[in-house]
Amino acid sequence: MEKINKHKKPSSYIYKLFIYVALLALAISIIIPVAWVFMASLKKNSEFIGGDVSPWALPKEFFVQNFVVAFRDANMGTFFLNSVIVTATALILLLLLALPASYALSRFNFRGKKILNIAFMAGLFVNISYIVVPIFLMLSDANKLLGVDFFLNNRFILALVYASSALPFTVYLLSGYFRTLPKGFEEAAYIDGCGYFKTMTKIMVPMAKPSIITVILFNFLSFWNEYIIAYTLMDGNDTLAMGLKNLMAVEKTATNYGIMYAGLVIVMLPTLILYIMVQKRLTEGMTLGGLKG
């Protein structure tokens, strides 16, 4: 046995070394571009132009005027507020719809359950970008039919479309997690006089918090960075992704690179902060369900 262990050790060390090197290379490939964008957003325009200028040089001073110009002249503050409103509304609508649906599908048996499961699973294969034009035509026809201008250029409608597009994946993820939770908690709640709704809100939803945080993070990234649907349905109440596109087009022509990178930082910063805040819960949500079966 000792000889076998001795023969296994070198290969085990090589395998671990390979994993560490691969992870280090992956981390470097992510950290360096992000750090470079942050560094470039604090440079003056003169530090980008010239034959003797190194793109890797640190800023001579922290030129925060780039962010001031991006917020003031490029209207990024308004775009940022629009994105916050749309993303927050979409997440609230999504959780209000997905939590009861996933709980019912995972914990109860009722007529039509298989059909609903098939419908939600089929929704996983529908790419919202492919049906954005039919959605636009449907909303446009609704405006004409009712004689209103409500269904287009409306942040609530955009949030509702976002929530609807993310519903199949969210129900799939949450229902899978709910199935792993022991039934003893529900039975104890029923004995104490709790109804179905109170049991769900007071017992089961708090237990599924890691999975809910995972859903929130994934969908936040999707909603925050979405461009195609917002570009199609909105005209005036632009989101941050649309504002960044306009900013990049204008400043690239004017060769104001510092302002371009400042716009990128404004878009990236909320996602980085959110990920740092919930990374521990995110890992729990992705692994805990598999450990409980």
Please render the helix and strand layout as text.
Blueprint: H1 2-40, H2 65-72, H3 76-107, H4 113-123, H5 132-146, H6 155-180, H7 184-191, H8 196-207, H9 209-225, H10 228-233, H11 240-253, H12 257-291
Helix pairs in contact: 2-12, 3-6, 3-9, 3-11, 4-6, 6-9, 7-8, 9-12, 11-12
**CATH class category of the largest domain:** Mainly Alpha
Q: What name does the CATH topology of the largest domain carry? A: MetI-like fold
Question: What is the CATH architecture assignment of the largest domain?
Answer: Orthogonal Bundle
Number of strands: 0
Relevant CATH superfamily of the largest domain: MetI-like
Count structural domains.
2
Going by helix content, strand content and strand pairing, the class is mainly alpha
Total DSSP helices: 12
Shape: globular
- Pattern of helices and strands: HHHHHHHHHHHH
What integer is the average pLDDT? 85
Our estimate of the beta-strand percent is: under 5%
> Quick one: biggest sheet?
none
> What helical percentage do the residues reach?
over 70%
Low-confidence stretches: 289-293
Radius of gyration: 25 Å
End-to-end Cα distance, whole Å, is: 34 Å
InterPro entries: BP-dep_ABC_trans_perm, MetI-like, MetI-like_sf
Protein name: ABC transporter permease protein YurM
Domain ABC transmembrane type-1: 80-278
Keywords: Cell membrane, Membrane, Transmembrane, Transmembrane helix, Transport
